[in-house]
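User: I'll paste a sequence; please echo it back and then give the predicted structure.

Assistant: Echoing your sequence first, then the prediction.
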Amino acid sequence: MLKSTVFCASLIVAGSVAAQATSLTQAEAQAKLTEAGYQHVRDAEMDDGFWEADARRADGTWVDVRVHPVTGKVYAEDTTPKLDAEAVSRKLKAAGYTNVRDIDFDDGVWEMDARNKAGVKVDLAVDPDDGAVLSEREDR
């Protein structure tokens, strides 16, 4: 039994290290923005699980952007979401979330409050294109 417990603990620690190792650095997040066509990036910082920054488009317009810390997908504040709030709510409910409310499109992603399958109040960030949950944080 002890060997099994030690092995499981090792997997948990290794999984945590692996997850941290796959997160983008600030420089990598800025590189993703440059690859997406932004010409200047400033004030990049990790906030609410995303890299967030101000970035200038080729036309000179400044926009708020987010970069997913693992996939590197860029989300801009002026993006038109493929899914509307109602579609996102349906997807979340189908995935087991309840009490989905306060849905707001902010800086390129859908944000809302909900309860997860365990009944815990959470803040969610959801991809505007496919409804995938990008971030789930306990609502404090």
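Residues 2-21 form the longest helix (20 residues). The radius of gyration is 18 Å.
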